[in-house]
Amino acid sequence: MYRAPVDEIAFTLKHVAGLKSALEAGLLGDLSEDLADAILAEAGRFATEEIAPLYKVGDQRGAVLKEAEVTTPPGWKELYHRWIEGGWNALSGPEEFGGQGLPHMLAVAALEMWNSGAMAFAIGPTLTMGAVEALDKHASDDLKATYLEKLVSGEWMGTMNLTEPQAGSDLAALKARAERAEDGTYRIFGQKIFITYGEQDFTDNIVHLVLARLPDAPAGTRGISLFLVPKFLVNSDGTLGTRNDVFCASMEHKLGIHGSPTCTMIYGDGFSKDLPSGAVGWLIGEENKGLACMFTMMNNARLAVGMQGVAIAEAAYQRALGYANERRQGKAAGFEGEGMAPIVHHPDVQRNLLTMKSLTASARAIAYSCAHALDMAHASDGAEKLHWQERASLLTPVAKAFSTDIGVDVASIGVQVHGGMGYIEETGAASLLRDARIAPIYEGTNGIQSIDLVLRKLPQSDGEQVAAYIEELRGIANEVGRSNLPGFGRSAARLETAIEALKSATDYLINAQNEGRGEDALAGATPYLRLFGLVAGGSYLAKAALADSDASRVALCRFFAENLIGEAVTLNECIVGGAESLAAAATSLVA
Ligand SMILES: Cc1cc2nc3c(=O)[nH]c(=O)nc-3n(C[C@H](O)[C@H](O)[C@H](O)COP(=O)(O)OP(=O)(O)OC[C@H]3O[C@@H](n4cnc5c(N)ncnc54)[C@H](O)[C@@H]3O)c2cc1C
Description:
By secondary structure, the protein is an alpha+beta fold. It has helices at residues 6-17, 19-24, 33-51, 55-61, 76-85, 104-117, 119-138, 141-153, 290-326, 347-379, 382-417, 420-423, 429-436, 446-457, 464-483, 491-514, 518-523, 525-548, 551-564, 567-577, 579-586; strands at 64-66, 69-71, 157-161, 177-180, 186-196, 206-212, 225-230, 232-234, 240-243, 246-251, 262-267, 279-284. The radius of gyration is 24 Å and the shape is globular.
C-alpha cells in the first residue's frame, strides 16, 4: 500500500522548486523550514494511515444515489470529518476567514499525498479550495461573510458547475439561464452535467458556483455570469434555512474514481416546494464577467489536477516496485540467490520501473515549480510580480497536462510490471489506471491545455518569458557539463540537444502565429507540450542531482537523459514539419 514519500517531496520542494531559497529570503511570512517539514510529515501520515486504507472500499463500493441523496463509500464521511478537524481544508485558505494562508508549495505537496491515498476522496476538497479562492478574489463582502469561513474550515463544501450537455470545452455554448429578482438576487434555471461532488453526505450544505447567462447577455463567452447557489439558503444568523431549488437528478457510472459522485444537477425545476420557481443565486463579481471569475477557480484546479497525475504515478510506481521485488520468474544475471529471480533483476523490468520513477519525479518538479512561481508572485511587486505571474501561467498548462499524461503512462506501465496480476483487480494496479484516465480530460482537456500553452502563454511579454525560461534550463545543463561528475555520463550533451529542440519548436510556433499561420501552430500544440514537459522535467532531475550529488539522483538524471529525453528531437521535427502532412491526411477524416 501507498506510503507518502515525505523526504523526496520535501527535497524537491526545497532544492528544485525553490522553497528553501524563498524561506531564506523571508518571502513566506512566518513559515520556518522546521514548520514546513512538520506539516509535510503530518500530511503524509494522514495520507498513508487514514486515506490510503479507505481507497479500496471507495473503488469497490463507490458513491450511491437514492432519491436525490448521495451516500459516499463506507467510512468516507468519518474520514472527511477527521481530515477537516485536522485543519487540512484550511491549509491555504485566507487567514481573515480562519485559513492558515500557507504557501501554494506546501498546499500542492499535501494535495499530492492525499491524492495518492485516494484521488476520488481528494478531488472533493480540491474543488472547495478553488471555490474559496474564487470567492475571496471576486465575491461581495456579504457573500464572503456568509460563506467563506465555513468553506475554509470544510464545514461546507464547494462545487464548480460549468459543463452542460452541449457545452464542454466550448463554454460559449452554455445555456443555463439566470433571471434578475426584485430583491437583488437571481433565479437560476438549467442543467449541469458531470458535477463532481454535486451532491454528497460529507457536509450539511453545498455551495455551488454556477455559470449562467442573463436574458440580455451578449452571445458567447462575454455573456456569462457566475453565481453562488447554496443547497440550503443561509439565514441571517448563519443557520440553514429553506432548501434551494437545486437537486441531483442522476449520477454517472464511470471508469474510475468511483468514490467521487459525478452528478447531473438540475436548477430551478420546482424541486423545492418552499420556493417560487428558480434556484436562488447570488452574483459573484460583475454581470457578464463570470468567466474571468471562474478562471480563478479553474487555474487553481488545473494545478491541483496536475497533482493528481503525479499522485497516481507515485502510487503506481510504489505498487509496481513492491511487486517486482516479490514476484519471481526466470533467471537473471544480476541475481545470485536460490531459484527464480525476483523480476526486479530483469533489465526490461528495471527499464519500466525507472521510466515510472523518473517521469514521476520530473512531473512533480514541474508542478512544484509552478506552485513556487505562484508564491513568488504573491510575495513580490511590480515587474518582478509580473515575471512570476507569467511564469506560473506558462507552467500551469504543462503542470496539468504533462503530469496527467504521464500519470496514465506510468499507471499503465505499472499494470505491465504486474503481468496478468495487473489486469485483474486484486493488486490495485488496474484501479490506478482506471482512476488516472480522467485527469487528462477534466479541468480543460489536455488538448485544450496545449492550445493554451501555444496560443496564450508563449506570446507572453513578446516571447521573452518563455525565452528566459529556456535559458534557465540551459543554465542547468551547462552546470551538469561543468560538474565533471562521471556518474552523469552523457547527460549534459543530451540535455543540451533537447533544450535546442525546445528552442527551435518554440521559435517556430511563435513565428507561425506572428505570420498568421495559426493552424500550423495548433497542429503542433500537443507534441509541443510533451516536448516542453520532457525538457523541463529532465532539467529538473539534473537540478536535483546537482543539489546533493547523491549517486541515485545522478543515476536517475542520467537514465532520463540517455533513455527518455531523446524523444525531444523527434517531437521538434513533428512540430516544425508535421503540419502539412497532418492537414493532408486529415482530409480522410471528416464525414
Ligand atoms: C468524472 C468527471 C468529473 C467532472 N467534473 C466536473 C465538474 O466538477 N464541473 C464541471 O463543470 N465539469 C466537470 N466535468 C466535465 C469536464 O470538465 C469535461 O468533460 C471536459 O471539459 C471536456 O468536455 P467534453 O466532455 O464536453 O468534451 P468535448 O469538449 O466534447 O471534447 C471532446 C474532444 O474534442 C477535443 N476538443 C474540443 N474542442 C476542441 C478545440 N477547440 N480544439 C481542439 N480540440 C478540441 C477535446 O480535447 C476532446 O479530446 C467532469 C467530467 C468527468 C468525466
